[in-house]
Write a structure and sequence with these properties.
The chain contains 2 helices and no strands. It is mainly α and 97 residues long. The protein is globular.
């Protein structure tokens, strides 16, 4: 188990790419039949774009994903994952948390 902080939206592209590479290296060490649960604040805004619908549920706070949201969604797509936080409806006051 590792703890890490995802770079914020305003960080340089190289820092974000390095974070994704390290995350992927960790994922690659999980046995193929293992289960991965990734918890954390990924500093991402996930939108309801149709192209992301295979991993992003219909209960998003935003209409359009930011760059970090796209990176998280692409990571999930590449690793056959889905983003659980957007798959269940929450009270409006709790959507952003």
């Amino acid at each position: 188990m590792h703890g890490t902080y995802a770079p914020t939206e305003d960080k340089e592209e190289g820092i974000k790419e390095q974070f994704c590479e390290e995350l992927q290296k960790t994922q690659d060490r999980v046995p193929k039949h293992g289960v991965t649960i990734l918890l954390g604040d990924m500093n991402a805004k996930l939108g309801n774009e149709k192209v992301l619908s295979q991993v992003v549920g219909c209960h998003t706070l935003h209409d359009i994903s930011n760059q970090n949201g796209e990176m998280v969604a692409n990571y999930a797509i590449s690793n056959d994952m889905f983003l659980i936080s957007t798959n269940f409806q929450h009270k409006k006051i709790r959507i952003g948390t």
